[in-house]
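The passage that follows is intended for readers who have already worked through the single-chain material. We present the inputs for a multi-component assembly, then the predicted structure in tokenized form, and finally a short commentary. You are encouraged to pause after the input and sketch how you expect the pieces to fit together before reading on.
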Amino acid sequence: MSDKTISIGGAVAALRSGMTVGIGGWGSRRKPMALVRAIANSSLTDLTIVSYGGPDVGLLVAAGKVRRVVTGFVSLDSIPLEPHFRAARQAGRIELTELDEGMLQWGLMAAAHRLPFLPTRAGLGSDVLRVNEGLRLVRSPYSDAEELVAMPALRLDAALIHANRADAAGNGQFLGPDPYFDDLFCLAAGLRFMSCERIVATGDLLKEGPVQTLRINRMMVDGVVETPGGAHFTSCVPDYGRDERFQRAYAAAAADQEKWTDFQQRFLAGDETSYQRAVREHADD
Amino acid sequence: MTEASRAEVCVVACAEAWRGDGEILASPMGLVPTIGCRLAKLTFAPDLLISDGEAYLLGEVPLAGPEATVPVIEGWLPYRTVFDVVASGRRHVMMGASQLDRFGNSNISCIGDWAKPKAQLLGVRGGPGNTVNHATSYWVPRHSRRVFVPAVDMVSGVGASRARAAGAAASRFHDLRVVVTDKAVFDTAGPDGTLRLRSVHPGVTVEEVQEATGFDIDTAIAGVTRLPTAEELTLIRTALDPDRRRDSEVPS
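Having made your guess, compare it with the prediction:
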């Protein structure tokens, strides 16, 4: 098995401006934030981000990396509205493909299965069909003749996910209660990067959790990045919960340009090591 | 025992939404619906399935106070499984709504022009799929003309008019039940599936409700929302919400 370990910088260097990038996790939960932070500090621009959105979307929007967001929501969970996403939408700075949460899953599934679309009831009657002019309906060829939404495949140029454990070959393990849709993001993407809390020997994966936790296999991954704390400040249970105090600081700073500049300088201007150091200092404040 | 507060009347009105639902997933959004849902399960709707809001199905209602329990986990409910349940129809959700019209079309997405909204809210979330797949009710903690509007800015939850217009596939499983607010309870038995005032909470007048609603409402059968029983009050106060968090959502 080949060693797919790669640095944060190496993963980000493989991305290109204009790409459609899917990001795993959900809201403010198990987001590959170390990779997101590095993209925010890169020269990449004009990205389309597909995500069950949280601070991943917020940070990238704030850094001016995003042309379009494809999502059903953007939320910090314990803080319902993501301030950067909110501000950018209200200023008309980003484009949005707004979908029902289940439609997003179906679009990823269609891409994963190499289908042009999958039919769904979700979206019918709602303004999702009004604001997404490209969405089409499809009539069942069977006797029911139901007219359903033909959710098009959401093909991704790249996918970024964060796992609790992984091996160097790209087998990934989630130890928290929800795998979210990380496997679908990987299956829908051309280029797949998985960060993780810790890389362990393949033979040690089952010491960490039962076989059902091995949701990601190495066919689904091109690069593995070990980033302890790499999901911070989103939750990565059981390794750590959401850093609510830090998230509150993030949200407060995001609501004010001057405070955001300070926050950006203090936490985000350097690399991941300096971020983690600044977070520890913040925790000791 | 002191008499029921407005918040406690709202808890019971929310609980009533799930009466008779049987063995389905009950998904309350917000504090008062959550307390209501758990009250329903503890009393008249014991077969309901409830989740911890993350990924577990709880086999028992978690209780606080002297009878504090560690909840028994009876099942696994990650988000993808929730979507499966949505599509199967075995679910009754009580969602919030930033705007609602007389047909029960709802909006949690944004206020103003969608292309450049005055206020970006959550996004449509699961509203479009929920409303065309299974039973849906709403909880509105502050009944006002800001919420009850002639037309919503972005239809995230499908109401009766939109379901009808979208055809058989949209209306086949469309099942809008009740709207509970801090002032009143509506059902959807008005003409063409419009909201109809079923009851006002004790101490609220029909005129007050009409005044706080941005469209004409059918008030012909409006009664008074029932008071909690002594058993229900005890459960709410000692086991479900001893810290009175409900009062922050519905002040007395």
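Commentary: The domain at 6-247 of chain B is CATH 3.40.1080.10 (Glutaconate Coenzyme A-transferase). The mean pLDDT of chain B is 96. How closely did your sketch match?
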